[in-house]
């Protein structure tokens, strides 16, 4: 554990650039064909603890993450990073079910480093594998790793570009409690190193453990954006109250 903390410290640069922050969504609207998916979302994400996206299935969390990554383009409104377009290589995303290249875990990380224009030497690969606590599995075929191991490898790959913003879509949704804890520890360390984490989760316990603030969506609308303590202890909206009580199903 101490080792991995040390490696995270190495990973954090003394003066990490935050030229991609804040991330500002202004009146962001998205539709797929005739289906309106996001309705005028206004929210600003600032440096600091993770921002957690919550809300019922289909409320637009994944869509918001893909828009933030630039994988989709809004049909209305604007998304800016420190007032402009996202700097090259400043964002990385990990999906719920990451796709592994048909090669070893180490080679997956080396590939991500090369793709990011970083040296893919052994020390760099090792540093990222250590960070994701999968160094002992370096030589294993990535596709043979368990779900939890693949998720950690996906985190290592995402961090290869030294992003300022790490977007995570339900990173622990199919993991057991021990693997979930490992991934949460990595997320907490990544966040402590100065990387802005924005993650979707349905796990209320996880959101309580990790979130600095919560963005709560329902039916494609931003319902509430609040500090985590406030959101969990005293939600303002009826929708959030119902959701936290397990009653809001859409
Ligand atoms: N390409 C598409 N075409 C049509 N509808 C889409 C498309 N992509 C997403 N949607 C719809 O948009 C809504 C929001 O989807 P999204 O995946 O963002 O929700 P989510 O909050 O991530 O849900 P979940 O909690 O189930 O992951 C859903 O109703 C979904 O069916
Ligand atoms: Mg989703």
Let me know the average pLDDT.
92
List all distinct small molecules, including ions and cofactors, that are bound in this structure.
adenosine-5'-triphosphate, magnesium ion
* Total number of beta strands: 9
* Strand residues, percent: 15-25%
CATH class: Alpha Beta
Give, in order, the helices and strands: HEEEHEEHHHEHEHEEHH
Calculate the terminal CA-CA distance, rounded to whole Å.
41 Å
Please state the oligomeric state of the protein chains shown. single chain
The neighbouring-strand order within the major sheet is 5-6-7-3-8-9
Q: Provide the gyration radius in Å.
A: 18 Å
Number of helices, where a helix is a run of at least 4 consecutive DSSP H or I residues: 9
- Please state the second-level CATH architecture: 3-Layer(aba) Sandwich
Shape summary: globular
* SSE class: alpha/beta
The percent of residues in helical segments reads: 25-40%
Name given to the CATH homologous superfamily: P-loop containing nucleotide triphosphate hydrolases
